[in-house]
């Protein structure tokens, strides 16, 4: 099906479409899962291969040894972090492990962490593994499958709380958590705050410095169009000396090339939380997306996102579909979750019709436009859901797929 993308609003951001090959092949509305690949990734990965091929081991001295921090510096302005405070890891589960392995949990009177049942499960899996046995995980439960009650959450953060670990934006509903109040309460009672920024950086304004967040971990593969293998970790610089990671390695050593087997002296900067040799290919692959997001600007991205997510909600409501995302634009990030009848089967038929979305249990079909999507695509996805329900083609999809 061919659709016209020249939106009636004369959207200047649509000029970016030609940078993303997949947009000419399908209706790509899933940037909250995997952002579209910029075509310049071909050049970037070729540069990696050329460097390896021609410079060989000398590439470490030329560029590769400090490349991690250089890429972190490109992400830093998108999250209000100072230069030198952001480093890249392979995934959030590893980054969480590194950080948690270095926090002192054995503090007087502290025996609790606060999480919520809308967090990304892997965050909680990892957290539980690192806590001393006597710790309690207090899980605040959503009443509506969209939000977390702020008063309940803030009440749970008390003098016994060591850490509050939450998503900045909830992955099922795109609800933006009230981070200012969370950090204020946590700090007032002497607790620290770790936020998951996978669904925030690149699509909503984030300022970790103004928010005074302690730790912030998010990924490049969604809204930063960076592909898998790139997760960024920010630690408030003044907290670095208090962290002694057990998950570590020679890249965290002040003098790795001394190869002094007796003494392990941790660096004082963000590299203190490094470990072994980073996946350099990913550091090349993730840069074009980050560069583009910096050029487009989060302000313009957010303005368009608010408009298109509002349009999605308006259209879905015309058909009476349940909306599992906040109505208020101040509380809603980049995704709209729609839960029509037979949502799982409908999602499979959308994929069969080349409209790329995903499905999440206990939520519905997640539709996530980014700055490169047209309004025509927004209309198309909702119209197609209605057609699929009307013509009963959803009924062909009786088998559950492993990846949804
Ligand atoms: C909120 C959130 N956190 C984390 C992840 C992934 O975690 P990891 O980087 O450990 O694979 C995802 C999804 O892919 C996510 O949506």
If you had to describe this structure to a student in words, what would you say it looks like?
This protein has helices at 40-55, 58-62, 67-75, 92-102, 121-130, 150-156, 179-188, 208-211, 280-285, 287-296, 298-318, 343-352, 375-391, and strands at 27-28, 86-89, 112-116, 136-140, 161-167, 192-196, 215-219, 231-235, 322-323, 336-339, 355-356, 358-360, 364-367. It is of the alpha/beta class and 404 residues long. Strands 2-8-7-6-5-3-4 form a 7-stranded mixed beta sheet, with helices on both faces. The protein is globular. The structure holds pyridoxal-5'-phosphate. The site of pyridoxal-5'-phosphate has 12 residues, from helix 4.
Sheet with the most strands, sense and barrel status:
7 strands, mixed
Task: Describe the strand arrangement of the main beta sheet, using strand numbers.
Answer: 2-8-7-6-5-3-4
Q: Number of helical runs? A: 13
Q: Note the beta-strand portion.
A: 5-15%
Summarize the structure.
The protein is α/β, with parallel strands linked by helices and 404 residues long. It has helices at 40-55, 58-62, 67-75, 92-102, 121-130, 150-156, 179-188, 208-211, 280-285, 287-296, 298-318, 343-352, 375-391, and strands at residues 27-28, 86-89, 112-116, 136-140, 161-167, 192-196, 215-219, 231-235, 322-323, 336-339, 355-356, 358-360, 364-367.
């Amino acid at each position: 099906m061919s659709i016209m993308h020249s939106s009636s609003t004369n959207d200047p951001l649509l000029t970016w479409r030609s940078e993303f090959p997949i947009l000419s092949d399908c209706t790509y509305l899933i940037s909250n899962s995997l952002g579209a690949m910029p075509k310049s990734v071909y050049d970037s990965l070729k540069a990696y291969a050329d460097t390896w091929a021609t410079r060989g081991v000398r590439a470490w001295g030329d560029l590769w040894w400090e490349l991690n921090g250089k890429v972190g510096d490109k992400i830093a302005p998108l999250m209000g972090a100072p230069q030198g405070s952001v480093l890249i890891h392979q995934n959030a589960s590893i980054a969480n492990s590194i950080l948690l392995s270095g926090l002192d949990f054995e503090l007087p009177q502290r025996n609790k962490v606060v999480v919520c049942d809308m967090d990304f499960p892997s965050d909680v899996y990892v957290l539980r593994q690192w806590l001393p046995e006597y710790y309690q995980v207090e899980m605040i439960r959503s009443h509506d499958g969209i939000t977390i009650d702020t008063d309940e959450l803030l009440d749970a953060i008390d003098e016994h709380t060591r850490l509050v670990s939450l998503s900045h934006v909830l992955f099922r509903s795109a609800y933006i958590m009230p981070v200012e109040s969370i950090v204020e309460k946590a700090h007032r009672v002497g607790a620290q705050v770790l936020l998951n920024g996978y669904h925030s950086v690149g699509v909503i304004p984030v300022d970790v410095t103004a928010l005074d967040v302690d730790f912030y971990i998010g990924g490049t593969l969604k809204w930063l169009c960076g592909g898998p293998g790139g997760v960024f970790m920010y630690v408030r610089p003044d907290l670095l000396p208090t962290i002694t990671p057990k998950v570590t390695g020679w890249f965290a050593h002040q003098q790795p090339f001394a190869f002094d087997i007796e003494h392990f002296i941790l660096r004082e900067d963000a590299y203190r939380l490094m470990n072994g040799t980073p996946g350099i290919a990913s550091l090349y692959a993730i840069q074009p997306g980050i560069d583009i997001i910096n050029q487009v600007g989060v302000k313009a991205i957010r303005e368009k996102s608010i408009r298109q997510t509002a349009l999605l909600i308006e259209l879905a409501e015309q058909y009476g579909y349940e909306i599992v995302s906040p109505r208020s634009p101040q509380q809603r990030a980049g995704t709209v979750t729609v839960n029509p009848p037979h949502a799982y089967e409908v999602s499979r038929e959308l994929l069969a019709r080349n409209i790329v979305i995903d499905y999440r249990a206990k939520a519905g079909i997640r539709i996530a436009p980014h700055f490169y999507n047209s309004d025509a695509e927004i209309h198309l996805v909702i119209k197609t859901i209605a057609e699929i329900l009307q013509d009963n083609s959803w009924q062909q999809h009786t088998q559950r797929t492993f990846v949804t």
